[in-house]
Amino acid sequence: MTATTELKNIINEENVVYKKTSVLLDNEMHYCPGCTHGVIHKAIAEVIDDMDIQEKTIGVSPVGCSVLAYNYLDIDWQQAAHGRAPALATATSRLMPEKYVFTYQGDGDLASIGCAEIMHACNRGESIVVFFVNNAIYGMTGGQMAPTTLEGQVTATSPYGRDCQTTGFPMRISEMLAMLPGTRFVTRESAETPGAVRKLKKAIRKGFENTRENKGISFIEIVGTCSSGWKLSPVKSNEWMKENMFPYYPLGTLKDE
After folding, report:
1. Alpha carbon distance 96, 30 (integer Å)
2. The whole model's pTM is what?
3. Residue limits of the Thiamine pyrophosphate enzyme TPP-binding domain (predicted)?
4. Per-residue CA distances from 96 to 193, 224, 233 (Å)
5. Domains of the chain in sequence order
6. What are 193-249's pLDDT values in tens digits?
């Protein structure tokens, strides 16, 4: 038996330990090295595949670094105006209640220009899932200060560090939304280790399952990195995130009804 024959015998379906989900397209991602968006995309795609809901899922992409999310997940997508993804997802979910509808938004899109949209969608308790990626900075537009930028954090528009006396304090969006009666599941996760990704995937699955019961919105915040905006290597970005972001944005479930 030749080495080639042995290899063919090994690469059988029953011997496969892992393979890329078909929900994740083969397009090369545009994200910077070390960016958390790619990991989150993969986690969402794998959960959609595991639940066998690819043909029933509709995503709403934002304005920001993940504006091209529709190039990477092979599902139906809609493109929202800046900050308006929850409104578009509301209409989609109400018109097609049999669909699994989610928004994918960054901290600039959701917490700044879209703050009113997400507040009211959560207060209404729409049957959607919201993925909120918090990297404490505006990534696509050049690294400006965001509503979630930490006190003292240096950005393009806070070169001496965020001064909370003049710009206000970093917004803990998940804590705010957890107080609203329309939110059913509010959690804050991360994706920097295999263990964190497993926890994230459990939360994603729970969020999608909750939409079938029409009992409120599922809000999943993911604390991530922005190597380009933070001016750090991917490894150093993860270290900075753990040392600085996790204390202010602690991981865990805030509400589960």
Report:
1. 31
2. 0.94
3. 70-222
4. 36, 31, 43
5. 24-135+173-224 (3.40.50.970)
6. 999 999 999 999 999 999 999 989 999 999 999 999 999 999 999 999 999 999 999
